[in-house]
């Protein structure tokens, strides 16, 4: 599964303004409504429910909020670069500035896990994250996120 299977060019937000984890999730829900036509409240409730199980702040300034919805038929994603890092209860206690929202159909067991693993692999690459943090253009962010994995970053 490639990131381009999950992420559309118009689902990249180069400068998201939020001052808290809850605001980040609300804004991502609003953007998911715009990008995918999903019910904003259902997305938000799904993300909050998932956060109650444990933080999706995976460390190194990265969060991967995710959840399953009945209203979609394939995994989809939305990437946002925050204009200022926010506290996200991340596992390393560092604030988050790169967020990849991942939504999957309710019945998508293996596909959801594959998508999560793919996003996680991409955002574990420090060079990629450094480039993402240094880029302002939505097109350039999309290109960085969807470029085929090189041998070095695939390892």
Mean pLDDT: 92
- Main sheet makeup: 6 strands, mixed
Strand content: 25-35%
CATH architecture descriptor name: 3-Layer(aba) Sandwich
The CATH superfamily is Mannitol-specific EII, Chain A
> Low-confidence parts, pLDDT < 50 over ≥5 residues?
150-155
What's the total count of β strands? Answer: 6
Distance between the termini: 16 Å
CATH topology: Mannitol-specific EII, Chain A
Structural class: alpha/beta
Radius of gyration: 14 Å
Report on the structure:
The protein has 155 residues and is of the alpha/beta class. It has one domain: Mannitol-specific EII, Chain A (3-Layer(aba) Sandwich). Helix content is 43%, strand content 26%. It contains six helices and six strands. Strands 1, 2, 3, 4, 5 and 6 form a six-stranded mixed sheet that branches. β2 (57-59) and β3 form a beta hairpin. The chain is globular, with a radius of gyration of 14 Å. The two termini are 16 Å apart. The model is unreliable at 150-155 (pLDDT under 50).
